[in-house]
Specification:
The complex is a heterodimer of chains A (about 550) and B (about 350).
Chain A lengths: L18 H4 L4 E2 L5 E5 L9 E2 L6 E2 L4 E4 L8 E2 L4 E10 L7 E9 L19 H10 L26 E6 L8 H8 L1 H15 L3 E7 L3 H13 L5 E6 L8 H9 L14 E5 H12 L6 E8 L5 E6 L4 H4 L10 E6 L6 E2 L13 E6 H5 L12 H5 L6 H9 L3 H6 L10 H5 L6 H55 L2 H27 L10 H21 L6 H4 L2
Parallel strand pairs in A: 1-14, 9-10, 9-12, 10-11, 13-17
Antiparallel strand pairs in A: 2-8, 3-5, 4-7, 5-6, 7-8, 13-14, 15-16, 15-17
Chain B lengths: L16 H23 L2 H24 L3 H5 L3 H12 L6 H16 L12 H12 L1 H4 L2 E2 L11 H10 L8 H4 E2 L2 H10 L4 H7 L11 H17 L6 H20 L7 H6 L3 H8 L10 H21 L6 H18 L12
Antiparallel strand pairs in B: 1-2
Helix pairs in contact in B: 1-4, 1-12, 2-4, 2-5, 4-5, 4-6, 5-6, 6-17, 12-15, 13-15, 13-16, 16-17
The chains are: A alpha/beta (about 550), B mainly alpha (about 350).
The complex binds iron/sulfur cluster (2 copies).
């Protein structure tokens, strides 16, 4: 109880706006006529469809199975008929469509056969993980990493602490708060299963101290169930307390190594909602087919709804009383790390924790963009102790080596820096730009290395074939002349000469710069196009106004 | 704006550059009013002339560079530079002195480096030092506090002096000007007097610093504390500067109180409090991290003391800040915080 808490630097005390939506109990959202279930709702490979158009399915039936190691299955959120498997708009920052299974619901909502596990202790951890994998459970806190992988410590490390993340530090979002208040038992049950799968020695639930009801509810449940091996840890309310690395630091005092995993320091962190889903999958046999979504901001009746995966977002809005007049945009997630929804018909997926209707006033909180005045407010706010102003400087100058020297890839994109920047610089946008740019450069380099290798291989083969041909010719000539002895020598000489040519060529090739020279014209054109696109995107994001003039310098 | 807002974060705190600059202006108002009350309205002329030329020079250069003029002018940074220079110059400066100083500050020290955010040196201090080196006589002709003047200097006379260089018949410059307390202290010490003798001999000195001056400096302190409370500045640079000055002055004073004035006199005299809260805290030309700012302030404090005590200038705030501006990139380099999950590289 009296755990010594550590701290992380920076961070922000943000206006929470949680009171808007937290008051009302979670209600079940209506089952829509059509569910649109994307095959890719998680980090990793898209799931592989198991059904065809026209097929009847029951609620909970697997529609697509996990493909590869990092992937997750998807299930029918209700019973009905598959209409199509086709590209549909999805909730993704890019706004691009993706493959979805369209399911016409029959209103019966009939379950398929479920296989609850009576006593999970009787199962070994790997069997448990298989159940969780097949239930399609991914991290419900927002990232959407397949949960079963994070329940597999592997042979190399013993797990010391399982942390359930109930911090919910982003403003406006209250779905975890409501879950903890209403279904603490499920979270606790899930925590015990996770702990068994991980063979973890300790487990705890971390909750920000601005949620006293949730804390009380979890404590009450623990007491009622007479469980004393799960600790409730009250953590201070400070954004981004719910960031995995920040929470781990605060709770354990240890830091996840840069580029490493929490597992490296014996810690595994899961969201509380993920724990509840694990419980349902194992002990009730229910795959992940719904989740709690906060509808808040500029809606008439902000609240939390239990929403079937695949429900079009626009159909949820009336259930929250509809949008107010001054709503500018819908944000998926919170105001700090969410993204703008580009198509309102896009469905709720497993990672959608909040639909925030942003009003004009919210957007206007930001003033004109000015040059960086090097005030250091961003560095003070950064929970990772980066120097955001330097990152910005080098990202803008497209000096991607320098930007990595300043540890761009340790940035968690929490947005604290941009929140405080008095010049209103779109800092995080620049970091995202630099990251994608670096990734694509690396891909290009890999591609060109591959192309070069192929090219060398091909040259060598051609030379070898030439040599052999030459040898054959020589032999033929010799045979014609009827002079066997010289023929053999001629063949050898020809081969030797050809080999030397090939060798010289290969060595020559080795000294050439490893760039895009080996690419075809088409590839090069594509690269150039991609580059131009990216540059344009940067320009669009570059602060207009005062610094616009600087860009020309 | 739509494009910028198209991805997160969507929220922003209400702080912006204009707000910061205006807060600095507000924080300087009480001291400015006291200045007028104790020394007459000369300082307002300084500030007025500086502001007019600062804004026009900034607008001209921006237009010439093809950059949008309005957003840059509205950020308030030129106004702050004008205010700081106006307060730093002697309150009876001829108009051309102020003009040359502010043009130098805005054009050379700020815009030629790229404008707001790109100037490695504090523009107001660059302007001040340029004047101090080029026009030492004008820069050391200080008005005496009104209470210590033998001649009567009306507003009309002041205007006439600032714009034409002529005083009304019968009024001599000597009757209205005096050495600054720091100047007087330095001169007399070099003549072999002790600190106590000097302080009791001249009405220029009061209990903390100079007569009149100490009130103004007290109000600079108050304005600075207000900025701190509003979180416009952090405590690091001021504490570093004042702390180091206090330590050094206290150290020497402790061993030889006759030769070395005490820490309170040093802090309450000259431009120290203005420098600590309004100049060493300049974000652009200062150090970036809080640790760096502490070092920056301490360095400036040490330089102020050393130059005042052993160097050729009685005040030295401007020189010290500029020298530390030069050191800022190095300080930043060595005070980088340890990034989460990284082992400190030593
Ligand atoms: S907060 Fe903004 S203006 Fe200040 S240093 Fe950071 S990027 Fe520059
Ligand atoms: S977005 Fe990145 S740089 Fe900015 S505060 Fe968060 S971690 Fe630091």
């Amino acid at each position: 109880m009296s755990r010594q808490l550590s701290n992380f630097p920076g961070g922000l005390h943000l206006p929470g706006h949680k009171e808007l939506s937290v008051g009302e109990a979670v209600a079940a959202a209506e089952i829509p006529n059509r569910l649109i279930i994307p095959l890719h709702q998680h980090i990793g490979a898209a799931a592989e469809p198991l059904v065809e158009a026209g097929q009847k399915v029951l609620k909970g039936e697997m529609l697509a199975k996990a493909k590869g190691f990092v992937s997750a299955a998807v299930h029918a959120s209700s019973s009905g008929t598959i209409l199509a498997i086709e590209d549909r708009p999805v909730a993704h920052p890019s706004g691009l469509p993706a493959l979805c299974i369209v399911l016409e619901t029959d209103g019966e909502d009939v379950w398929c056969e479920r296989h609850p596990v009576e006593d999970y202790h009787s199962l070994d951890p790997s069997a448990l993980r298989n159940i969780i994998r097949d239930a399609g459970i991914v991290g419900l806190g927002g990232a959407g990493f397949p949960a079963y992988i994070k329940l597999n410590p592997g042979a190399r490390t013993a797990v010391d602490t399982l942390i359930l993340n109930g911090a919910e530090c982003e403003p406006y979002i209250t779905c975890d708060d409501r879950l903890m208040r209403e279904r603490a038992d499920e979270i606790i049950a899930g925590a015990r299963i996770m702990r068994h799968a991980l063979q973890a020695s300790k487990s705890l639930i971390a909750i920000e101290d601005n949620k006293p009801e949730a804390i009380a509810s979890v404590r009450e449940a623990l007491e009622r169930l007479d469980i004393d091996d799960i600790e409730v840890v009250e953590v201070p309310t400070r954004y981004p307390m719910g960031g995995e690395k920040q929470l781990i630091k605060v709770v354990t005092g240890k830091e996840v190594p840069s580029q490493g995993l929490p597992l490296d320091i014996g810690v595994v962190c899961h969201n509380v909602a993920t724990a509840a889903a694990v419980h349902r999958s194992v002990e009730l046999g229910e795959p992940l087919i719904s989740r709690i979504v906060t509808l808040t901001g500029g809606v008439e009746r902000p609240r939390n709804l239990e929403v079937r995966i695949g429900t079009p977002i626009e159909e949820l809005l009336p259930q929250a009383g509809g949008l107010s007049a001054n709503v500018e945009r819908l944000i998926v997630g919170g105001p700090m790390m969410g993204f703008t929804l580009q198509h309102r018909e896009a469905p709720v997926v497993k990672t959608v924790n909040c639909i925030l209707a942003a009003t004009r006033e919210m957007d206007a909180s930001r003033g004109p963009v000015r040059p960086c005045i090097r005030c250091g407010a961003c560095a003070e706010a950064c929970p990772v102790s980066l120097l955001p102003q330097q990152l910005y400087w080098y990202a803008r100058a497209k000096d991607f080596d320098k930007v990595q020297d300043y540890n761009l890839f340790d940035c968690i994109e929490c947005g604290c820096c941009a929140y405080v920047c008095p010049s209103n610089l779109p800092l995080v946008q620049f970091y995202r730009f630099a990251k994608t740019e670096i990734w694509s450069q690396e891909r290009e380099k890999k591609a060109s290395d591959l192309a070069r290798e192929r090219h060398e291989f091909r040259t060598a083969r051609i030379e070898r074939e030439k040599a052999e041909r030459a040898a054959r010719m020589a032999r033929k000539k010799a045979a014609v002349k009827g002079d066997q002895g010289t023929g053999d020598n001629a063949k050898k000489d020809a081969i030797k000469a050809a080999m030397e040519r090939a060798k010289a060529k290969k060595e020559g090739a080795g000294t050439q710069p490893k760039n895009t020279e080996d690419l075809t014209k088409e590839q090069r054109r594509k690269l150039a196009e991609a580059k131009a696109r990216r540059e344009k995107a940067l320009k669009d994001q570059a602060p207009n106004g005062a610094s616009g003039g600087k860009e020309e310098k | 704006m739509a494009e910028i807002n198209s991805s997160s974060p969507y929220a922003h705190n209400p702080q912006n550059v204009t707000g910061v600059m205006l807060a600095v202006v507000y924080a300087l108002i009480p001291a400015t009013l006291a200045y007028v009350w104790l020394f007459g309205p000369g300082v307002l002329l300084n500030i007025g002339i500086a502001a007019v030329f600062a804004l026009s020079a900034e607008a001209t250069i921006l237009a010439w560079r093809g950059a949008p003029v309005r957003p840059a002018l509205s950020d308030g940074s030129a106004l702050v530079t004008a205010l700081l220079l106006g307060l730093a110059l002697p309150p009876l400066s001829p108009w051309w002195l102020t003009t040359v100083g502010i043009l130098f500050a805005i054009i050379i020290a700020k815009q030629l480096y790229g404008g707001l955010g790109f100037n490695p040196f504090n523009p107001a201090m660059v302007g001040y030092v340029a004047l101090l080196i080029s026009f030492p006589v004008e820069m050391t002709t200080w008005l005496a506090p009104e209470s210590l003047r033998s001649g009567e200097l009306g507003f009309g006379a002041m205007l006439s002096y600032v714009f034409t260089g002529n005083l009304p018949v019968g009024l001599t410059l000597d009757s209205i000007t005096a050495a600054t307390p720091l100047d007087e202290m330095k001169t007399q010490l070099s003549l072999g007097q002790t600190v106590n003798e000097i302080r009791s001999a001249s009405p220029l000195f009061a209990q903390f610093g100079g007569t009149g001056w100490q009130v103004i400096n007290g109000l600079f302190l108050l304005g600075g504390l207000w900025l701190l409370a509003r979180r416009v500045i952090t405590w690091h640079a001021p504490v570093g500067l004042l702390g180091m000055l206090f330590l050094l002055a206290g150290f020497f004073h402790f061993f030889d109180a006759g030769q070395y004035p005490g820490p309170v006199f040093h802090i309450a005299s000259g431009g120290v409090l203005l420098g600590a809260f309004f100049i060493a805290t300049d974000p652009t030309s200062g150090a970036t991290s809080n640790k760096g700012r502490l070092v920056f302030g301490a360095g400036a404090g040490a330089l102020i003391y050393l130059i005042r005590t052993f160097g050729g200038f009685p005040d030295a705030v401007a020189f010290s800040v500029l020298l530390m501006n030069m050191a800022a990139p190095t300080i930043d380099y060595y005070t980088q915080p340890r990034v989460y999950g990284h082992i400190r590289k030593d």
